[in-house]
Amino acid sequence: MATLLYRLGRGAFRRRRWVTLAWAAVVLGVVLGAMSAGEAGDDSDSMPGIESQHAFDLINERFPGAEAEGADARIVLVAPDGRQVTASEYRAAIDTLVAEVADGPQVAAVSDPLDAATVSQDGSTAYATVTYEVTEDNVTDAGRADLTAAVERARTSGLTVEAGGGAVAGEPPAGIGEFLGIGVAAVVLLITFGSLAAAGLPLITAVVGVALTLASIVALGSALGMSTASGDLAMMIGIAVGVDYALLVVSRYREERAEGHDAREAAGLAVGTAGSAVVFAGLTVVIALAGLSVIGVPSLTKMGLAAAGAVVIAVLITLTLVPALCGFWPDALLARRFRKGRSAPPARRFRKGRSTPPARRLRGGPGRGAARRTREAGAWSVRWARFVQRRPVPVLLGSAVLLGALAVPALDLRLGMPGDEAKPTSTTERRAYDALADGFGPGFNGPLTVVVDARQADDPRSAVAAVSDRLAATAGVVSVAPPRFNAAKDTAVIQAVPATAPTSERTEELVHTIRDERHATESATGATFEVTGTTALNIDVARKMTDALIPYLLVVVGLAFLLLLVVFRSVLVPLKAALGFLLSVGASFGALVTIFQNGHGAGLLGVEETGPVMSTMPLMLVGIVFGLAMDYQVFLVSRMREAVVHGERPAEAVVTGFRHSGRVVTAAAVIMTSVFAGFMTGGETLLKMVGFGLAVAVLFDAFVVRMAFVPAVLVLLGERAWWLPRRLDRLLPRVDVEGEALGRRTPAPALAAVPDTDRQDTVRA
User: Fold this and answer.
1) Residue 748, SS3?
2) CB 377 within 8 A of CB 354
3) Each residue's pLDDT tens digit, 403-446
4) Run of H or E including 352
5) Alpha carbons 731 and 276: distance in angstroms, whole number
6) How far is CA 243 from CA 172, 205, 239, 247, in A?
7) What is the DSSP code (8-state) at residue 450?
8) How many angstroms separate the CA atoms of 334 and 246, rounded?
9) Where does 252-334 show beta strands of DSSP type E?
């Protein structure tokens, strides 16, 4: 592996113009394909294997055209205290509102709240239902603006008028996600490298990778049914890993130059060693993201595969385009103090039991003085590694206790799908939601839809009536609407309003109660029924996600364990990596529950309403964070493994790993945290939840697990950390991530110093 990548790096450096032109041609071709591609469809919301989805499918089958019904909205009217909306003084204003909305673009019909009797018992609240000719995604901005203007004019009558529903909600307020991440990445890279060129190169390659990924998603969107939702995750992951992988290779390139190697040799060695770590780190991320397909949810599968594609592109760019760009600015990537007096004989790769011979020391050049300054640059990480080396037990216990304590709130984790109740009170959707809850009861915003299949009943109407009566008699149901039959009169839909809010635990218990008691009803009537609706669907999805978590963990962790077993040729190192990941992800779940579910500190993040954690959040968090955590594992421990292979004692190898990779891992973690945290600046609570969960998970894993837990365990294990049964050692393929084969190479002859021009670099290559 190392030798192959070494040749790839040298080849890309030598043929840098062709490599750069090839990538430019690929990007241009995909962009042109995206521009000519058809409009992308929506990510499928289908949730196979749950009762709610089966009931929805039955409705679509028995009520033709139900699935194609247009979007709708609710206009909620609330009278001033002590007044009623039915008063004659408000009649003209309501008639005008209904007429104006009915004349709006794309509107199919508007119900008059007074004629339709959609008025609360006390007469204080009423609502009008607006039905559109198009689906929610196709409601134009002009249509929404017309509705908003009509609502504004109606408020002059003295009524409180708000609008909610799927047709009202437009695009959420945009945050500064990717811009914040790129900005922080630029600052961190500049501080880390002390060179504008070295700081800019990872950013350039990351942007190229993300552009290629997004263009590919658009180009394939209509064929594969991908929408922009798949692109959001791919962009977030693509920026993070694109910068991190290029950062690792550029950092290793600078180290090799500091040891005395010429530019092309340094590029080859950087790709051969750090590039090997990038390949296997990328594979772990791909496994984690592609593993989302085992859950059986089409939307998650597409998101995971799109993000995995972004990682593959980032790896390919790192192995080819990064060394090619190094060829254009071979010395500009070095720190300013290393750019004068560049000539030095290439240092020999160290062999087992021997360190690298010191390169000739030149004034300002990359010889032994440069190497010493490189070591000094990592002094803080070396001091920390020495501290862990001296006190491994307190560090191990402290990190484990800290993460364990943070994970305790996760025991109360509740999953759901927050709706309008989680939006800020500044939005009309949230105010409409609250007004309906006050006027009609908290359960009005989340009615249960019961689909009765009476085909096998002797008297379908009597059977449906019996089911309706049973529902009305169930504790926790406040009202049941008259059944609505299909054209064949053998299937009916019944709306049951719970007494509690959609996200309440009592509502979930009510759904389970109705389902548990239906056997007796079905036996007595001969009709079968299923419970669906948005509330029941969210409950079923939460259960499906919970049930899928353990199998998903087993698949992903199992495959990653095998991969790390091959990489590190150790049984205990992969086990330690998996245990550390479980600690960090548990602490992340605890932080999510503390803020977004229990509300402690929610105001600091601009979260006004707490509730259950998004149903898909645990699986997304596990998949994404596991892959990224293994990135840091490979980055850090591969240098320790390299030192052990070349003859260092295990305890000293820990220090060596920190000396060379500690700063890189720290910079990578800060960059990745910034990318994720940037998505917390959006207006949607769900987006804040995703950004916060990923950001804190990276912080916990990089700075507590990889910087404290992992080195402490390795110091305590000593030689046993690298133990591998002999039989297994013979069976496993040798991939040479640590570059041992490169250490046996015959060094290239020394090169004379030449001015830094493209022409002479080309000749020298």
Assistant:
1) coil
2) no
3) 999 999 998 888 887 777 777 777 888 899 999 999 899 888 88
4) none
5) 21
6) 27, 7, 6, 6
7) E
8) 15
9) none
Q: In 3D, which of 195, 204, 185, 196 has the Cα closest to residue 322?
A: 204
Say which DSSP state 703 is in. I
Count of Cβ atoms closer than 10 Å to residue 338 Cβ: 23
What tokens does 756 get?
């830094």
- Helix axis angle, 617-645 to 298-328, nearest 10°: 40
Residue spans of alpha helices (H) in 679-757: 685-699, 710-717, 726-731, 740-743
Task: Please state the φ and ψ torsions of residue 479, each to the nearest 5 degrees.
Answer: -160, 155
Do the bridges between strand 415-416 and strand 613-614 make them parallel or antiparallel, or are there none, so unpaired? Answer: parallel
Of 106-110, 422-426, 596-600, 709-713, the one with minimum mean pLDDT is 422-426
Q: What is the mean pLDDT of residues 537-546?
A: 87
pLDDT, tens digit, for every residue of 4-35? 888 888 899 899 999 999 999 999 998 888 88
Q: Report the pLDDT value the prediction gives residue 358, as an integer from 0 to 100.
A: 36
Q: Is 317 left (phi over 0), alpha (psi -120 to 50) or beta?
A: alpha
15, burial (CB in 10 Å: exposed 0-12, middle 13-18, buried 19+):
middle
**Gap between the Cα atoms of 130 and 49, Å rounded:** 33
* Tokens coding 319: 């192995």
Amino acid at 387: F
- Tokens linked to 280: 């296997």
* Average pLDDT for the chain: 80
How many Å apart are CA 215 and CA 228, to the nearest integer? 11
Cβ-based neighbours of 519, under 8 Å, separated by 6 or more: none
User: What is the pLDDT, as a whole number, of residue 181?
Assistant: 66
Determine the longest span between alpha carbons in the chain, in angstroms: 100
Task: State the DSSP H helix or E strand holding residue 562, giving kind and residue range, or none if neither.
Answer: helix 534-568
Spatial distance between the Cα atoms of 727 and 282, rounded to a whole number of angstroms: 28
CB atoms within 10 A of CB 383: 11
Question: Which position has the higher pLDDT, 37 or 236?
Answer: 236
- Count other C-beta atoms under 10 Å from residue 579's C-beta: 14
Here the tokens at position 524 are: 């007595």
3-state secondary structure of 73: strand
pLDDT tens-digit map of 189-230: 888 777 788 788 888 898 898 889 888 888 876 666 665 667
Token output for 166: 């799927």
The Cα–Cα gap between 657 and 67 comes to 58
CA atoms of 297 and 689, how far apart (whole Å): 20
Q: Which residue has the tokens 């509705």?
A: 147
> Which two tokens mark 509?
């218990």
DSSP 172: P
Crossing angle (nearest 10°) for helices 263-290 and 228-258: 150
Buried-exposed string 35-73: b where 16+ CB fall within 10 A, e elsewhere: eebeebeebeeebeebbbbebbbbbeebbeeeeeebbbb
d(CA 113, CA 119): 7
Length of the chain: 765
């180290």: which residue's tokens? Answer: 255
